[in-house]
Amino acid sequence: MSGKDKYAVFGNPIKQSKSPLIHAAFARQCDQHMQYRAVLVELDGFATAVSRFFADGGAGLNITVPFKREAFELAQRLSARAQRAGAVNTLTLAEDGILAGDNTDGVGLLRDMIANLGWVVQNQRVLVLGAGGAARGVLEPLLRDKPRELLLVNRTAARAEQL
């Protein structure tokens, strides 16, 4: 697959990820020459896997369960969204060689709800299930859009309260 930009999603587990299918469809529609694959990363091997991916010419990574907090810690430069979320779901190697982290969970969710459902958050009751990395990314954008009520539910109350 030479000549193609290399991207991947890192997670554990990873079989559930639809990202390779979504990115393949995007590449076809936009005439992009890219490779995108799902990579099962060992729980104790995230930093090594990221380093190896970029050393091998990788262009960008999406990060999923359970590595969003670890990606936040690993990134050398953070977007404002990532800083507010305390989690990273996108890693790129900047031109200056710095590992840059962003969090697109919230902005992506809100754009999708508006574009595909015609649903806006303002004055609505919103329920967020879970208090992991994705929840960290969506809470601030949801609150910024002024819901009437936002309820965060998690198996462990302490983790939800931390957010």
What's the short story on this structure?
By secondary structure, the chain is an alpha/beta fold. It has helices at residues 19-29, 46-55, 68-74, 80-85, 105-117, 133-144, 157-162; strands at 5-11, 34-40, 58-63, 77-78, 90-93, 99-102, 125-129, 149-153.
Q: What is the overall shape? A: globular
Number-wise, the strands total 8
Across the major sheet, the strand order is 2-1-3-5-6-4
Helix run count: 7
CATH superfamily of the largest domain: Leucine Dehydrogenase, chain A, domain 1
CATH fold group of the largest domain: Rossmann fold
The fraction of residues in strands falls at: 15-25%
Runs with pLDDT <50, length 5+?
none
Structural class, please? Answer: alpha/beta
CATH top level assignment of the largest domain: Alpha Beta
String of helices and strands: EHEHEHEHEEHEHEH
- If you average the pLDDT, what whole number results? 94
**Largest sheet, strands/sense/barrel:** 6 strands, mixed
Into how many domains do the coordinates divide?
Answer: 2
Q: What can you see in these coordinates?
A:
With 163 residues, the protein is an alpha/beta fold. It has helices spanning 19-29, 46-55, 68-74, 80-85, 105-117, 133-144, 157-162, and strands at 5-11, 34-40, 58-63, 77-78, 90-93, 99-102, 125-129, 149-153. The protein folds into two domains: 5-102, Leucine Dehydrogenase, chain A, domain 1 (Rossmann fold, 3-Layer(aba) Sandwich), CATH 3.40.50; 105-162, 3-Layer(aba) Sandwich (Rossmann fold), CATH 3.40.50.720. The protein is 40% helix and 25% strand. A hairpin with a 5-residue loop joins strand 5 (90-93) and strand 6 (99-102). Helix 5 (105-117) packs across helix 6 (133-144). The chain starts with a strand and ends with a helix. The model has no long low-confidence stretch (mean pLDDT 94).
